[in-house]
Amino acid sequence: MKKILIVNANYYKNISKKLVLNSKNKLNINRFKVNIIDVPGIYEIPIAIRKNIKKFDGFVALGCVIKGQTPHFNLICSSTFNSILNLSIAFNKPIGNGIITAHNIRQALQRCQNTSSKKPNKGSEAANAVISILQNGPKKI
Predict the structure, then answer these.
(1) Distance CA 84, CA 107 (A)
(2) Rounded mean pLDDT of 27-41?
């Protein structure tokens, strides 16, 4: 059984809780063993993944960043997303990026709705990305 680690940045607890629930449900339905760790913010996600890179088959990064009045949003998002991509490539492990980047809380809440609603949930989307990579090996043409 493949093992997946969900790394949850719980700065916005009401949002991250919904992301984790939807991601975990999607992984459980597809028969993955799921572990979850919480980190304070998205900036800590890459180091949490790196510390656990050899213990798991894949990762789901979850959290939320809401744009403020300073360039902090751009710097945090860019460095975190690049680090996640670099880890995935360097260690050949899928990392689903379910980090919401929004201009305001209303946008963020729309992107973490339950998957039964018509709007997508970034948690289940990130889980689907990891599932797709791990279940779809090379095919003969």
Answers:
(1) 23
(2) 97
pTM over 0.90: yes
- Report the percent of the chain where pLDDT is more than 70: 92
> For 89-118, b where at least 16 C-beta lie within 10 A, e where not — what string?
eeeebbbbbbbbbbeeeeebbebbeebeee
State the fold for domain 3-135.
Rossmann fold (3.40.50)
Q: What is the pLDDT of residue 117?
A: 56
Which residue in the list 3, 33, 51, 72 is annotated as catalytic? 72
72 is catalytic: yes
The full set of domain ranges for the chain reads: 3-135
Tell which phi-psi region holds residue 139, choosing left (phi > 0), alpha (psi between -120 and 50) or beta. beta
Q: Which residues on adjacent β-strands are paired with residue 6?
A: 36, 60
Query: Average of pLDDT values for 53-64?
Result: 98
